[in-house]
Amino acid sequence: MKFRYYYTIVKLAIIVLVPITLILLPADFFDHGESICASQLFFGIECPACGLTRGCMHLLHFEAEEAFAYNMWSFVALPAISIFWLVWGIKELKRFQKMRRQMQASPGL
Questions:
Q1: Ramachandran region, residue 84 (left: φ > 0; alpha: ψ -120 to 50; beta: rest)
Q2: The pTM is what?
Q3: CA-closest candidate to residue 52, choices 62, 60, 44
Q4: Three-class SS of residue 4?
Q5: How many CA atoms lie within 13 A of 51 on its CB side?
Q6: For residue 109, what are the contacts with CB-CB under 8 A and spacing of at least 6?
Q7: How far is CA 48 from the centre of its chain?
Q8: DSSP letter string over 50-78?
Q9: Which of 82, 88, 7, 22 is nearest to 54 (CA)?
Q10: Rounded to whole angstroms, how far apart are CA atoms 26 and 46?
Q11: How far apart are CA 89 and CA 93, in angstroms?
């Protein structure tokens, strides 16, 4: 029970820290370097998701034109990921609160 409790704390920390880290990083952080897209590496063609990470990062920093230039689907992906992330965070918070109540009710666990 204690392992799951601490595991939930770690997940909550990740849920909070990853968005903060992405906001604190510069918008062009992922713009440099070689692509790791398998489609580009093996076939030399861009897949529909190419540029999505860079586009979402620019959109996160309110740079809509750059986001659109990298991938127009970032305007769909970022809100979808944000909703998923928020729902996941709420679910983990409820799980944490339930575990905390159970641990307080039975301190011998």
A1: alpha
A2: 0.81
A3: 60
A4: helix
A5: 17
A6: 1, 2, 102, 103
A7: 19
A8: TTHHHHHHHHHTT-HHHHHHH-TTHHHHH
A9: 22
A10: 25
A11: 6
Domain boundaries, the chain: 2-99
Give pLDDT, residue 95.
94
Burial of residue 52 (CB within 10 Å: 0-12, 13-18, 19+) is buried
pLDDT per position in the chain (109 positions), as tens? 788 889 999 999 999 999 999 999 999 999 988 878 888 888 888 888 889 999 999 999 999 999 999 999 999 999 999 999 999 999 999 999 999 998 888 866 5
Rounded distance, CA 67 to CA 73, Å? 9
Q: Is 81 exposed, middle or buried (0-12, 13-18, 19+ CB in 10 A)?
A: middle
Q: According to the model, what pLDDT value does residue 98 have?
A: 93
